[in-house]
Amino acid sequence: MFLEDEFGDIIGKARTGREATVIEIADEVGISALDMQAIEDCRLTPDLNVARRLAQALALDVDKAVISAQNAWTPAAPDLSALPCIVEAIRVRFNQYHQKYYVVVCCNSRQAAVDDPVGAVYDILKIVQDNELNLMHILVTHSHSDHIG
Fold first, then answer.
1. For the segment 105-147, what is each residue's pLDDT rounded down to a tens digit?
2. Taking a C-beta distance cutoff of 8 angstroms, is the pair 29, 50 a contact?
3. What is the pLDDT of residue 146?
4. Measured distance CA(75)–CA(59) in Å, rounded
5. 4 and 99 Cβ atoms separated by less than 8 Å
C-alpha cells in the first residue's frame, strides 16, 4: 500500500503553503533549483542531510520528514479478501502533485464507485469500459482541487 503523498509531494505542498519559490528554498537548503524541482517531482530522493535541511526550512517535523524521505514507513495493507468487492488504488499525476483515486467494484453486481477522481476522467472511463462496470457513484472526500480535479 502506498501513501498518497511521497516525500516530494509533502515538500512541494509545504513550499507552496509558505508561498516560497523552488529557487528560494533551494538556496536556503544549499541545493540546486534543478535538484529541488526533481525532489518535488519525486524523481530524486534526497540524502538524509538534505531531507533534514528541507524539513527545517519548511517548518516540518524533521524526524517524520526523514522517515518519509527514506520510505521507511507505509501502512499495512488492509485484508479485503473477505469482502465481495475489489478495491483498486490508481496513481495519477495532477498538476504538480501525484495523487491517487480508488475504484471499488462489487464482484456480484459489477457496480462501481470512484473515490476522489482527481481529474482522471479518461482513465476512469477506460477502467469502467474495459471491465464492463456500471459506475454508480463518484465520492468526493473534500473539495481540494487535487481531489476533485
1. 998 899 999 887 776 778 888 888 998 999 999 888 766 665 5
2. yes
3. 57
4. 24
5. yes
Residues 6 or more apart from 104 whose CB is under 8 A from it? 85, 86, 87, 88, 112, 113, 114, 115
Cell of 30: 544549499
pLDDT mean across residues, the chain: 84
Three-state helix/strand/coil letters over 34-53 = HHHHHHHCCCCCCCHHHHHH
The 10 Å Cβ neighbour count of residue 35 is 16
Residue keyed to cell 529541488: 36
How far from 53 is each of 27, 42, 49, 70, 71, CA to CA, in Å? 11, 17, 6, 14, 17
Q: What are the tens digits of pLDDT across the range 16-53?
A: 999 999 999 999 999 999 999 999 988 899 999 999 99
- Residue 102 pairs with which residues in a beta bridge? 89, 115
